[in-house]
Write a structure and sequence with these properties.
The protein is α/β, with parallel strands linked by helices and 343 residues long. The protein is built from 15 helices and 8 strands. A 6-stranded parallel beta sheet has the order 1-8-5-4-2-3, sandwiched between helices. A two-stranded antiparallel sheet has the order 6-7. Strand 4, helix 4 and strand 5 form a beta-alpha-beta unit. The termini are far apart. The structure holds zinc ion. Zinc ion (ZN) binds next to helix 10.
Length: 343
């Protein structure tokens, strides 16, 4: 099991981030990786707080993400850093987490949005010259989630985070199915933890949609729990099943795909329908939180979604899911889209 050493969720945590960075780096210099917006809303003040205590270098990622792994790797190889602190959204966290892992340096995750479970997981989606792929990396040494900052981000990001969380509903079912059919290891504890993070969204969907007090914090806690579930399982299995395969296929088929969690949410409705599970419950939770709950709200046309479902099992032939079992044809998918009220 890989677990984070420190998890802090709260408000006004700028000084806490500095303290944690100091602990993580053992007194050695800290590399701060951040994005343009994240730097202006949070990164600058945090960098100053860390800079008062220790040597820092700040790297702002550029628009071309495919080059960032190389660029950050070069920075990390020039000087001895004790920790990398990633401050920003999903992409910044992923790229800085992967870079820290490659250099064997501790990673501190400081998310400024709650859009997916990568904020606390041992997985990273990275882009090389051709496409996006997911790799296993080290668990973040620490996660510091400042709700004051995360709440300021547009609601779309929190709604997307909910999409990535309801996905655990079908992911756990796929894992169980694979255990039954292929004999794959099934970890009850990790599965329950992941499943619970979907359940908490079903239970609080209306509150999240209305952005009631502490509802954003609930989403952040659930995302971190999902990440920890992956750390316990030693893979993304508890959190990623057929719905994630469809989502990955969509990102390959589209030039400007919707957010990861938005794709996963709508794909979860489809996967739940395929599994004969409670797809209406998923759909109504997504619509209550204000996330896309059909193809037109997602901004994906029927033909692209149909293609994505058909190609999904081949994206990871080794990860058995309901889609590997059913091997749907294009016309099956079209019929199911109608029956699941997705178009
Ligand atoms: Zn995900």
């Amino acid at each position: 099991m890989w677990l984070p050493n420190i998890i802090i969720i709260g408000r006004g945590l700028k000084d806490k981030v500095a303290e944690v960075a100091l602990t993580a780096s053992n007194g050695q210099p800290v590399l701060i990786v951040t994005g343009k917006t994240a730097y202006s809303i949070y990164g600058r003040t945090v960098s100053e707080a860390i800079g008062e205590r220790i040597d820092i270098e700040v790297h702002q990622v550029g628009a071309d993400f495919s080059q960032e792994l190389k660029i950050i790797h070069t920075i990390l190889s020039k000087k001895r850093f004790g920790a990398v602190v990633g401050i920003g959204g999903g992409k910044v966290i992923d790229i800085s987490k992967a870079s820290a892992h490659k250099a064997g340096v501790r990673f501190v995750s400081v998310p400024t949005v709650a859009s997916h479970d990568g904020i606390a997981s041992p997985m990273a989606s990275v882009m090389d010259s051709s496409q996006l792929y997911s790799i296993m990396v080290s668990m973040p040494f620490a996660i510091v989630a400042d709700i004051d900052t995360i709440e300021k981000a547009p609601h779309r990001y929190v709604a997307s985070g909910c999409g990535d969380l309801v996905a655990k509903y079908t992911a756990v079912r796929d894992w169980k199915l694979s255990h039954k059919i292929t004999g794959e290891y099934f970890g009850d504890y990790a599965a329950s933890l992941a499943y619970m993070s979907a359940e908490i969204i079903f239970k609080n969907a209306k509150k999240i949609g209305r952005r009631e007090q502490d509802s954003i914090r609930t989403v952040v806690e659930a995302l971190i729990s999902a990440g920890v579930a992956m750390g316990i399982a030693g893979s993304s299995r508890p959190c990623s099943g057929s719905e994630h395969l469809i989502s990955h296929a969509l990102s390959r088929l589209m030039e400007e795909p919707p957010l990861h969690g938005e794709r996963c949410g709508v794909s979860t409705i489809f996967a739940a329908f395929a599994q004969k599970a409670a797809w209406k419950k998923v759909k109504s939770a997504l619509s209550s939180v204000g996330a896309p709950s059909n193809l037109s709200e997602l901004g994906v046309d029927e033909q692209t979604f149909v293609k994505a479902v058909v190609m999904a099992p081949d994206i990871r032939p080794d990860r058995y899911t309901i889609l590997h079992k059913l091997r749907l044809t294009e016309s099956d998918v079209r019929q199911m889209l109608r029956d699941a009220e997705l178009n």
